[in-house]
Amino acid sequence: MILGVSLMEIEENKTYWPIDHLRMDIRELIDGIPVGVALISPDLRIHAINRAMESLTGFNRKEVYGVPCRYIMKNNLCTRERPARNILAKEDQIRAEGDIINLVRQKVPVIINLSPLKDHDGKPIGVIETVEDISLVREFDQKIQGPSSYHNIIGHSPQMEEIFKTLQLISQTDSSVLITGETGTGKDLLAEAIHLSSMRAKGPFIKINCGALPENLLESELFGHKRGAFTGAVEDKQGRFRMANNGTIYLTEIGDLPLSLQVKLLTFLDDKEFYPLGSNKPVKSDARVIAATHRDLNEMVRQGTFREDLKFRLKVIRIELPPLRERGDDVRLLMNNFLQHFSKKFNKRITGFSLNSIPIMLNYTYPGNVRELRNIVEFAVNLCQDEVIRREHLPSYLHESITMGVPVSDNLAATSSVNTSTPLMYRESLYKATSHFDWEKIERQMITEALAQSRGNRTGSAKLLGWGRATFYRKLKKYKLG
Q: How buried is 250 (Cβ within 10 angstroms: 0-12 exposed, 13-18 middle, 19+ buried)?
């Protein structure tokens, strides 16, 4: 940009720019720009900002006059590279995406543009910086990108979104974590995700099931032993706590840990040291402890089978994973995710689930939670030789659970009559569950409804019905609706 006067001549945030022999207040000019604008002098001090920049940063233009820009334009780009100084030296332009910290310490995602200001002779006399708030764009992107995720965990339900937020907050701490939840909810995945997002990610992740070994072997496995400590101890053994040094030790099924070993674990949590079997010398280990259980530890404390002080030391941070039946639309997200995984693994070209298989899977309550759903999809993919998973590819107990009256989930409650608010793509199996219907009449009605809902858009109508485009066009022709 060409500026007729030096920024050093600005007085009280005001200068004039000759344009076709007119004198224009520079503040009025930049106030008309809908993104944040700052004029920066060669010594990197702010000489003017517009209203949009005031709104973005929280600073008043009179407050910032003459203040070094790094105190006002607090962003990660300035911290790393000092771009304004580079622009004055290289007379180049910079465009980058980053974050800015405003007056109330909120982090705002922005796009930053910096360009040199030059006089009539082409000499740089300052920098103009524009800052565009892209918060809404980021929010929109997150919505259309599909399910939220954290490492290998996916979900879009409110419960999972809250867990993802918690994981981001605790990732940089070393506090003990207790993960609770029913069998199959994903406690192991969550523990690994905590480790991988922490500062210990480059260290070892050591897992041990506290209920898998008898007490005498479990103590040796956890804390190690010295040679000759017991019959068969022919050499020293490190133990899992020592192996987890500078990393994370994950104790699954902590509710099965014997009381005698609960004392040793409590000592480690307090002092970060332990005594191997047969040794009188303490061993230090800098390991973070994550524990998990499907048991009710409060009830175990009342029964005297679990130490209350250990429960409190473990649950510095507690995360409870919800059962799958309470995660709403996450069931469908997980179905699709597992289908893609196993289709690729088994080298099959399965594109989705048929209309009559979806309600069966959404109706089921999944007592085995995510693990059971994964197994069901793997079973179906193994059996399927078509392009879609059909009712007959599902395990027989899913059909039996419906006919035997097993309670259904809230995703698609069973009704004696088909409600018109039921999504179109689920209605086929619901209509067929009734004893009397004219399927061709019903199918024609569903197509007409889909066209009405999508305002005549055929691709949108096919998606509403869960059909491929070819299937949709074939049925349009069949019912003469084209």
A: buried
Judge whether 143 lies within some domain. no
**H/E element, 439:** helix 439-453
Q: Are the beta carbons of 69 and 44 closer than 8 angstroms? A: yes
Are 73 and 122 contained in the same domain?
yes
Reported as a single tens digit per residue, the pLDDT across 293-326 is: 999 999 999 999 999 999 999 999 999 999 999 9
Q: Which pLDDT tens digit goes with each residue over 26-63?
A: 667 787 787 888 888 888 888 888 888 888 888 888 88
Whether residues 155 and 109 share a domain: the answer is no
| 169 and 202 housed in the same domain | yes
CB-based contacts of 108, cutoff 8 Å, min separation 6? 56, 99, 100, 101, 102, 133, 135
If phi over 0 gives left and psi between -120 and 50 gives alpha, with beta otherwise, what is residue 445? Answer: alpha
| Pairwise CA distance, residues 63 & 72, whole Å | 10
Alpha helix locations (H) across 178-320?
187-196, 215-223, 240-243, 259-271, 297-303, 308-314
**Residue 91 φ/ψ region, left for φ over 0, alpha for ψ in the -120 to 50 degree band, beta for the rest:** left
> 133: domain CATH number?
3.30.450.20
Burial class for 393, CB neighbours closer than 10 Å (0-12, 13-18, 19+): buried
Q: Are strands 388-389 and 352-353 parallel, antiparallel or unpaired?
A: parallel
List CB contacts of 377: < 8 A, sequence separation 6 or more: 335, 338, 339, 342, 389
Those residues whose C-beta lies under 8 Å from the C-beta of residue 117, and which sit 6 or more positions away, are: 1, 3, 7, 39, 124, 125, 126, 127, 128
Using CA atoms, how far apart are residues 396 and 160, in angstroms rounded to an integer? 30
Whether residue 304 sits in one domain with residue 266? yes
Do residue 211 and residue 292 come from a single domain? yes
CB 354 within 8 A of CB 390: yes
The answer to whether position 370 is within a domain reads yes
- Domain holding 341, by residue range, is 324-414
At 396-427, the pLDDT tens digits run: 888 765 544 444 343 333 333 333 334 444 44
- In the chain, the number of structural domains is 4
The answer to whether residues 343 and 276 belong to one domain is no
Give the predicted TM-score (pTM) of the model: 0.56
Position 7, amino acid? L
